[in-house]
Every structure is written in structure tokens, then in C-alpha cells.
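FAQ: What does the model actually see?

It sees only this:
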Amino acid sequence: VEALKEGAQAAADSALTGENATFGASFFHLDAGVFQPPSFGPVPDDYRLGVGDELAIHAWGEVDFQLTRVVDRDGAVILPRSGKVVCAGRTLGEVEGAIREQLARSHASISGDQATTQVEVTLGQLRPIRVYVIGEATRPGSYQLSSASTVLTALYAAGGPAETGSYREIRLVRGSRTIATLDLYAYLVRGERGGDHLLQEGDTVFIPNRLRRVHVTGPVRRPMYYEMRAGEDLPDLLDYAGGLRPEAVPDLVHIRRVLAAKDRRPGQPDHVFLDIALKDGRPAPGSPAGELLDG
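And it is asked to produce this:
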């Protein structure tokens, strides 16, 4: 039994880090909570308040008090002797200004350039939101997350893309409209988080089928499988693979290509070999272009 367990663990480790791994898969097997945002402030500047968010209102100076209010079902909070302030759909900065203006109606020391009472509004407990991760996800389904969560948070909760899922064109759908597309390679290779938007109640994160997949072996820094977008070619692939190791021959790449069914002939191999000469990291003049096909 122990031997079977060790064998299964070795196979799992190989699937995440060995030559048979898909680039990016190990990212979703980090410790739990790596991408789980806190359930209380601070929040990004573009965070918009909603029903259930908790506000902490602090005033000091000529008047001192502290209030805690939860945004109610009407999307507002009620201030003593000052009335209602609408919060839902506004940023924290906008809400702070509205609260300061409302309090100034009953506390003269808050208003004007010579105000002797300062007001600060911060966020306490954040509301939960329900989002959906569908398509080719490892664990598709509905997830309750903090309202400070982003697309990456939802992906991590769902275990990331499945073996058949794309790492390159993950879509954030709000209503019936795609509002952002996340390329995980841009994040993993260059640290770029374009498309990693804050989530809202009812958002859907959709993982489509993967694009072309190419297997890199030999003396590169990260030999494994890579998913390639339209327009990407051999230099892009070598860049994703971390470049060549010192012992590599820098001016030649061998490609083993599996032929499409329409190109196969009876009695002939189902694959061909191509030698691509490189110059300055690109196919040399007169060499095959190095177009990469799925498989």
C-alpha cells in the first residue's frame, strides 16, 4: 500500500514539475490561502462598496466619536442626527466625502477650510460575494469569496484550469458581456496582471478549451508543455521555457511534428522531423519558419 501511495505521489509530482507537466499547473498547488484576500480592509482604490460591507467612522478634534455601520439592504448607512448616506456602488473615497459632508450638517467643526474636527472612514468586515467558475476548470462550480477577490482568487479556489483548459484566454463575464481576459502566462513570466479585475456578485469566470500545446524537451530551463496563442512562434516558446541552458547548441532546434490525419499516408510514419537553424534566437534565413502546431 505504501509503495502504491509513493508511486501515485511521484506521478502527481511529475505531472506538476517534470517534463510531462503543463507550464502553470504547479501554480495552483501552492499552500491554501495564497490568493485568499483578507475579509477586512484595506481594499484597492477601485473597490466599490455593497450591501453587507462594514464601515468604521472615526472623528477626532473638537468632536470625538467612533461609529460602526453596515451597509443595509438599501445600499446606505444611517448616521445619528445626520441622516442617510448612499454607499452601494461608490468607492471608499467617495463614501468618505459623502459622510463628511453629511456629518458637517450637524457638526459645524467638520466643515470648511478651518475645520477643527477630522473625519476618517475605513472598511471593517467585507461582504461575501458569490461567483461562478465554469468551463474547463479543475473544480467548476459556485464559490463564496471575499468581495476584495479577483479573477486569480476564483481560479485558485477552483484549482485552476483542468488538463483540457486554457491558461491563456480566461474570461471574466459580467451579465452577458466579457469585460476582461486574463493571460496567466503574462503573469507567470512577466508579472503582468492585466485582466485580473475585482469580482462582483454574480460574476462568471469562464475557462475555454486550451489552444495549441507544444512539448519542449532537452537543455532548456523549463522543459514541459506550453500553450501557445495565435501569432506566437518558436522564439516565444523558447522565452516561456526560460531560454537555453549553457550546454545547449544555440543555433539549432529539432522539431518532431505529429502529422494531421489528412497528411498521413498508408505505411508511412505519423510524424516528421524538422531542423530549424537559429540566428539571434530566430529562424535563420532559408530555414523553415518554425511554425508551431498543436501536438
